[in-house]
Structure formats: C-alpha cells, structure tokens
C-alpha cells in the first residue's frame, strides 16, 4: 500500500465572482521511502495538492471531490481533532518562505522546543536541550547562542535550517518540502537540499519535494510527477520521466530545459489554459503538436507506458 | 571607500531604545509635558492619603461655599468640604474605576475578537452582530437602565463602562487577526499540530496586541469621561466620595450665583486628564505606525 494515495482530487477557489478550478482530478501515489518530486509551472496545482493533504487551504477553497489516503485513512474525512495528531508527528511541511514561517515574537529555539514538547512531552529544560541539538544537527553555528535569537536575526538560509530542525524534532513519516530553496542563494540552496536529504535519511521518512526546477529533481528524487493545469500528466521514476518522457507536455517541457547552448530558447507555443474555465478534453490539447480530434473531446485516461511509468495521454 | 566598507562590516545595527524612538517620533517637549502631567496626576493620586491635605469628606457647616483662599486653595463646597483635597482624592476614584473597566474590557474583548477573526464563518458573524447591537445602544440610557435594575454600586459602573469597551477591542483585534490567520507562521503552527486555541492565544493574540496598547490610554480617557458623566447624573459614585463628575454636578447649581470654583476646578482636572491621555495615545500611535 502506498503511503499517500491521492484519488481524483478536485479543488476549486472562489475568487471574487470567479471560480478557479485549481485541481481537476489529481491522481498521485507516493510509496513509502520514495523521494517524490512534483514539478510543474506556476499555477499547475503543486502547492494546492500539498496543502490539501494537510487541509491548510485558505477559506476560499473547496475540495469538491476525491480522497487523500494516508496510510489507508482518508485525510479529508477526518475531523480537525483527528487530524491534529497527524499534522506534525506524521506529516511535516517545510515552507517556501521560512523566515515568514517562524513567529516573530519568540526565539527560534523556543519555537522548536514548543514543537518538541507538543509531541514528546518532557520539561522545558529537556526540550530546550533538544532544540539546541537539532539546530546543531542542521549545521547552525553556535547553536546555544543562536537558539536564543529571534527570527529576524536569522538569514533566509538559517531560517530554512531552523524549519528543517523543527521537522527533525517531529520525526514525521512524510516530509513535504514546498519549494524549500527558492529565494536562497545558489550555494545555500545546495546546502539546504543536502540537509533535507540527510534528514530524510536519518528519519527514514518519505519526501515530497515540490519544485519547478527540474535540475533539482534528478539530484534529489527517485520519482517524479509532472503537473499541468491541475492534473498530473506523467509519473514515473526520474530516469523514466526525464530520460524517456512519454507525455507530449513533458517532452516539450524538457526540450525547453535541455537546450542551453541554443541561440534561441525553445518554448511551448500557446498559453496555459484559463483555470476559470472548464473543459472536456485534455488540458494540453490546444498546445499539443500531436493533438487529434479526440483530445478536445475526451480527457485522456492514465495508462502505464512501462512498469511504474504512467502518462495521461491518448497517444503515449 | 575601503575604510567605509571595513567599518560597516564591524558595526552592528542596534535597535534604538523605546524612549529614544519615542523622542525621535514626537519631540522632547511633547513627550515630557504629556507624560509629566500624567505622572503628576498618578503620583498625586497615589500619594493623596499621605499628603498634608484636609479631610476630603469632612463637612463643615460653618464654612460652606468659601471662595479660594490661603486655607482652602480651591475654596469649599456646599457642605464645607475642601475642594482642593477632594479634587486630588478624586484622581484615585476616577482613575482606578476607569483603568479597571478598560482592563476588563480588554480581557474580554481581545480573546473574543481573536476567536471571531480566527474561526470566521458563522461564529464570527454572530459575535460581530451581537457586539454591534451593543454598540448601537445609547450608553447613558443603558447605564441608567442597568443601574436601575442592578443597583447603584461602583462595581456596576465599572461593568457598564467595561461593557462598552468590549466591542472596541474585539473589533480592533478582529481586524488585525483576519490577515494574520493565513500568515505563514500561523500555517506552520497548524502544520506542527497545535490545537486552535493554542494558535489563537500563543501565536495570534501576541501579534495583534500592538494597536491594543495604543488604544489603551484613549479608552481610559473615554472611561474617565463616561464615569464622570454617569456620576454627573447621579449614577454610580455617591456624594461624599470625591469624584469629579459629582463635584461638577453639585457646583453646577451654584454657577449662576457666581460661585464658580465649585465646578471649575474638578472640571479642569477632568479636562486635563482626558486631554493628556488622548495625547499619550497619539504619541504611542505615531511610534507604532512608523514601524509599519
């Protein structure tokens, strides 16, 4: 049984008078221990998928259909109180903007200690000790002093380390990292990614990495899911999807990344469909070079191209 | 140029002290005068029992309605009580009643506003509508009705004023909490598995308190006015107890006979305390709004 099994997830947002259909039937499985990347353009639904798993969607959003099974239990059917023990101790999230994810009014060490006590009990001194230890483990210099600092005294990279330290004290089964490296310097990005991998290994956890950087995917992950306009287009192992892409969208997307020497950067002609509209066929049909009549009429079923490699296309 | 860069490397930014920022934003004089007067009021009020003042509640039938003199600086009233001593002692009554009613209002209004802002939806609507109904009700009328029903005691006066402070704070805090609800550190706290009440009290309320502190002196000014107003129409503080509103009321009957000192001195005290509290609220507001 997969650790996470997302089935036919539909999410819509009410924005003013418009309805934005952000997720349109997402199917995604994450196996225990696998490092899965979710890649896609902005607005393709990566973050919405992740936040739906923790039910952190803003009040304007509605999950209209679908199930999210975590260890066989449907997260969407749980009450807030039943969900609380799962958040933090089983699923943890590292946010994109770590500096904003720390409460500005408390020292960083105290925030980590609070999380520790929330899940493991223990007295304040123990929790503080533990907080200093995990800060040290995440490579923050002078952890005893730094634990007493407030979030505004931390740099972006340090704040991200502190967030990872917080995940470390929770020891979750699933760590969701939502673009953990965007907004950091390139050198720091590498360090943070190494740290995430180290932590995942230490905790024997499963990683879901949300990113738009395909370069990261092959460096960090085993499996990858490609999203486009609210659906998953292709899933498979990194070597399958990046090496032998089956879906026309993935093929075009990789072409844009592959040619760095070219005089002119390749691009996918056309525009991302307006998510306020609903359509019958394949979301990529309008821009797809291989599109036939059927693509505009019928949403493609997911088919297995080779073992463990799935693509949602009529022709792959 | 090289020296400049090396020096900036070693120099660290130190946040200016609270007093420093207060002076920078408002100027020395404004701060000194306002805080000075407030401090004078408060220390006079605290020290009133040990200062060499005449007994504020001792009537002297032989010495009524005396104009200001060396013996009675502010004159004497209808019952021959010393107005100077009464004006000073009234600081105790008015300030304690005002402060306690404001603090009760904050203690109830802040959590109420935070809960209504955080949970949103139906609960928010119900809380907001109920507080609006209370705000729409005429206050003096409500005070009179409440005292008629519950009795003319100081506790009831405090409760009435506190009651009118609840909506002020609940609405203010609600307006700060609504944008805070979806801020990332609140999301992160939810991801960490915190129960909603801990999120509200530990992560949201402390971040929403800044406007509350700026509002506090203003509310106190308002509460002093309200308490004096209620006493003026004979509700709450009863006569021998020194209180500005009731002193003004007693003196009002003698104004037409040229006995101005009965009302003017307590009136000035009331005026200055309200004025200073308003100014201080302004000073604090300028400090916090500059930060944003």
Rg of chain A, nearest Å: 20 Å
Average predicted confidence as pLDDT of chain A? 89
Span of the ends, CA to CA of chain A: 27 Å
Gyration radius of chain B (Cα, Å) is 24 Å
Q: Count the strands of chain A?
A: 12
Low-confidence stretches of chain B: 1-10
- The helix count of chain A comes to 11
Describe this structure as you would to a colleague.
- The complex is a heterodimer of chains A (316) and B (292).
- With 316 residues, chain A is of the alpha/beta class.
- Chain A has 11 helices and 12 strands.
- Chain A has one domain: Rossmann fold (3-Layer(aba) Sandwich).
- In chain A, strands 6-7-8-3-9-10-12-11 form an 8-stranded mixed β-sheet, with helices on both faces.
- In chain A, helix 3 packs parallel to helix 6 and helix 4 (124-137) packs across helix 6.
- Chain B has a single domain (18-51, 75-291), classed as MetI-like (MetI-like fold).
- The two termini of chain B are 33 Å apart.
- At the A-B interface, strand 6, helix 3 and helix 6 of A face helix 8 of B.
Topology:
The complex is a heterodimer of chains A (316) and B (292).
Chain A: E1 4-15, E2 18-30, E3 35-40, H1 46-53, E4 61-70, E5 73-74, H2 80-83, E6 91-94, H3 108-120, H4 124-137, H5 143-146, H6 156-170, E7 174-178, H7 186-203, E8 206-211, H8 214-220, E9 223-228, E10 231-237, H9 238-243, H10 248-258, H11 293-297, E11 302-306, E12 309-312
Parallel strand pairs in A: 3-8, 3-9, 6-7, 7-8
Antiparallel strand pairs in A: 1-2, 1-4, 4-5, 9-10, 10-12, 11-12
Helix pairs in contact in A: 3-4, 3-6, 4-6, 6-7
Chain B: H1 2-10, H2 18-26, H3 28-47, H4 83-119, H5 121-136, H6 139-150, H7 154-181, H8 184-191, H9 196-204, H10 210-232, H11 244-255, H12 261-291
Helix pairs in contact in B: 2-3, 2-12, 3-4, 3-12, 4-5, 4-7, 4-9, 4-10, 4-12, 5-7, 6-7, 7-10, 8-9, 10-11, 10-12, 11-12
